[in-house]
Amino acid sequence: MSIGNAEWSRLPAERMSLLTKVARMYHEQHIRQPEIAQRLHISQSRVSRLLKEAVNLGVVRTIVVTPPGVHSQLEDAIRDRYGLADVVVGGDDSEGSAPDDNALLATLGSAGAAYLETTLSEKDDIGVSSWSSTLLAVVDAMTPQRTRLARTAVQLLGGVGDPSVQVKATHLTDRLARVTGATARYFPAPGIVARKSVRDALLEDPYVSEVASAWDGLSVALVGIGSLQPSPLLQSSGNAISEKDQGSLRELGAVGDVCLHFFDAGGALVDSELEERVIGISATQLRAIPRTIGIAGGARKVDAIRAAALGRWIDVLITDVDTARRLVG
C-alpha cells in the first residue's frame, strides 16, 4: 500500500478531491453507498472503487484500538505458531499472576461460553468428552437461548473411575443439551475397562453401538485437555485413570490426552495398552471432526496443551492469559 503526499501528488487534484469527498461521506457522515452515488450522480460501482482507492492511497487509514482484557495479538501469535484455526484468550492482563483454581475455572468458563454462544449453529451436532470441571464451568456459564444453538449433543466417552461419579459425564452432556436446545445422546458405558475383549463386547451392545455410530457425523467436538498428572480434585473424586496406568504412560513419554487418547510432547499418539481398553470415540474419528474445540488452562497443563496443538488434536484453543503467555514464551 502506498501512503503519503508523494503518491497523492501524482494524481489529478480533481480525482483526489472526489475520492476524499466520497471517503468522508461514507466513513465520517455514515452515508450509504447508494445514497452517495445518487447525491454525486455517479454509479454505485464507482463509489465502491473510489472507497477502495482511498484505502490503498492511505487517505483512509483504519486503526484498531485493543480494549483492556482483550488479547488479540497473543491469540494471533498462538494461532500462527501452532497452526490453529482460532484461539480465544480470557482473563486480565496482570503479568506474572497466575489465577487460582476457582478464578481459572471462571475465566475459562466465561470465555468458552461466549465462544460457543457466538459460533454454534442450529445444524451443529456436538460431541462432548467425559466429565471435566472446565467443560462443566463452560456449560454452566452459558445462557439458554431463544433459538436453538445445536441439533444434537453426543457423549464421546464413557465415565472414568469410580462408578459413583461416572454419572458426571452424563450430567455434562445433559447440561450442554439443555443450554443449546439440542437433543442429548448419552453413552451408557464406562470409559476404561480391564481388557480389550470387554471393550469389544460392550461396543456390540445395540444401544451403545447406536450412539457410537453418531460420532462419524459430528460437526463440532468440545473437549478438555488432560495432563498426565490429574488435578487433586480429579484424583480425590476417583474420576481419574489408575496410578498404574499413569506410570505406564509416563514411561512411554505421554504428557497429556484428549478423550483418553494419550500423546507425547510432539503430539504423536502413544502406542499404549490403555488405548485398547478405552470405550469412546477413536483417534481417527476424533481427528475427522471438522472443528474440535479444546478448553484448558493452568500451569499444570501447559505441556499437554502445547502437545495437543502440535499434534492437531484440536483446531480451536480456549485458554487463560497466563497459559497463553507460556505457550508463546
What can you see in these coordinates?
This protein is α/β, with parallel strands linked by helices and 329 residues long. The protein is built from 15 helices and 10 strands. It has helices spanning 5-8, 13-27, 33-40, 44-57, 72-82, 101-119, 133-141, 167-180, 196-203, 206-213, 232-237, 243-251, 283-288, 302-310, 321-328, and strands spanning 86-90, 125-128, 152-155, 183-185, 220-224, 226-227, 254-258, 261-264, 291-295, 316-320. The strands form 2 sheets. It has a 7-stranded parallel β-sheet with strand order 1-10-9-5-2-3-4, sandwiched between helices. The chain has a 3-stranded antiparallel β-sheet with strand order 6-7-8. It is elongated.
Gist?
The chain is of the alpha/beta class. The protein has 15 helices and ten strands.
Task: Give the topology.
Elements: H1 5-8, H2 13-27, H3 33-40, H4 44-57, H5 72-82, E1 86-90, H6 101-119, E2 125-128, H7 133-141, E3 152-155, H8 167-180, E4 183-185, H9 196-203, H10 206-213, E5 220-224, E6 226-227, H11 232-237, H12 243-251, E7 254-258, E8 261-264, H13 283-288, E9 291-295, H14 302-310, E10 316-320, H15 321-328
Parallel strand pairs: 1-10, 2-3, 2-5, 3-4, 5-9, 9-10
Antiparallel strand pairs: 6-7, 7-8
Tally of extended strands? Answer: 10
Segments where pLDDT lies below 50 for 5+ residues?
Answer: none
* β-strand amount: 5-15%
Report the sheet with the most strands, covering strand number, pairing sense and barrel closure: 7 strands, parallel
Secondary structure class reads alpha/beta
Q: Helix fraction?
A: 40-55%
Q: What's the N-to-C terminus distance?
A: 32 Å
Query: How many DSSP H or I helices?
Result: 15
- Widest β-sheet, arrangement of strands: 1-10-9-5-2-3-4
Shape: elongated
Q: Could you tell me the radius of gyration in angstroms?
A: 25 Å
> How much is the average pLDDT?
89
Order of helices and strands: HHHHHEHEHEHEHHEEHHEEHEHEH
